[in-house]
Design brief:
Blueprint lengths: L4 H16 L5 H34 L3 H17 L18 H4 L1 H23 L3 H22 L6
Helix pairs in contact: 1-2, 2-3, 2-6, 3-5, 5-6
Length: 156
């Protein structure tokens, strides 16, 4: 599976945050949070693009590409809680403050999405169209389950 350069940057950012965050000054805290916030936005957009690819490739019965996109979503979804440190709700983000008061639920949904995406990849590898459609529907519902309580509506 081709993960991409930005996924490596994501991993690096998470590691830097995990090991260095407590030693930052106030200015460095804000700079680090802004960096993580940018990676989170890119991650969410990448998940959205992968969901659209799954829709297209399912119609074309290109299960190899469906599986690859599902695996990408599984990896990215698992990273979402790590990309959502408290205080990172600024700039071009739609995350709500409720995330941090209900972080266990937020994390549970992200992990559930990752698991469903993995199940979708398995169904695609088996070329089981009915299972792909059913699992893709469950993945879409999982995304909605998180977006409703934790994502602000798009500004018009």
């Amino acid at each position: 599976m081709r993960i991409g350069k930005w996924l490596c940057a994501l991993g690096f950012t998470v590691l830097v945050m995990a090991f260095s965050f407590p030693t930052f000054s106030a200015d460095e805290d804000e700079q680090a949070l802004r960096g993580v916030q940018r990676v989170r936005v890119r991650t969410m957009k990448s998940i959205s693009r992968a969901m659209r690819r799954i829709k297209v490739y399912t119609k074309k019965e290109n299960y190899k590409r469906v599986a690859a996109a599902a695996e990408e979503i599984a990896l990215l979804s698992a990273a979402i809680p790590f990309l959502s440190p408290k205080g990172s709700a600024f700039g071009k983000t739609r995350i709500k403050e409720e995330v941090w008061s209900r972080f266990d639920d937020y994390t549970k949904i992200a992990r559930g999405s990752a698991q469903i995406a993995s199940d979708l990849a398995i169904a695609a590898q088996a070329k089981n169209k009915n299972a792909v459609l059913k699992t893709f529907s469950a993945l879409s519902e999982s995304c909605t389950q998180c977006h409703k309580p934790y994502r602000k509506k798009k500004k018009k």
